[in-house]
Amino acid sequence: MALFVSRTDRRKYRETMLEIAGDIVAGRLPPGSVVPREVTLAERYDISRGGARECMRALEERGLITVKHGSVTTVNPREAWDLFDVDVLAVALAGPEADRLLGEYLECRRIIEIEAAGLAAERATRERIGALEDRFEAMVAALSLRPAREQERAYHEADVAFHIALVEATGNGTLAALVRRIDDALLAARYPLARPAYRRTRAIPEHEAILVAVRARDGAGARAAMHAHLATIEGYLREHARKVASAA
User: Fold this and answer.
1) What pLDDT does 1 receive?
2) What is the pTM of this model?
């Protein structure tokens, strides 16, 4: 019979899941180590058996552990983790390997988006260009919002939407589906590299250059504009890494 999980217990099991996920991602529970059984988790974290079971299930769904019924449950190697899961990404960005992960995301964006910008310029329909223009206008409009927290949320959402619209403009449905799969992760990964003070002088002009090249059907220009934009982001990543190292 299924175990009932109350709303309070659901919140507590989620907190427990995130705590254990953080231990795994930070290396405090290294690959191959044994995860306590449900009854032990329930006692240690003051949750019900049902909550402990849901916690284990959530960790398994995110690729962090392998549950072997009737045997021990062990931590998976990093290669098995779902790094596009928002929860996994959140605990990873709060851990000691945040800069490494941000670097991997940036590399992923280079591989996908530079070529995607060129293809968008060569293939985009009038409707797709219009959608890209709308996303750019939303980025600009976000800069006038107050308070700052609302501006941050709106700007980042518009920024992600611009890059998704750019990939959709390639006409490659498979590529667009891949990017939509990771859009929440990309949104979370951008916050540590946010530079609000430079948006009007760097971010907006860089995105506008991409848009102008796509609108002009200039594939080479679009690739160059995206390359320049990602080079700026890479500079922010280096700056972030230096701050983290200095604080340590």
Assistant:
1) 40
2) 0.80
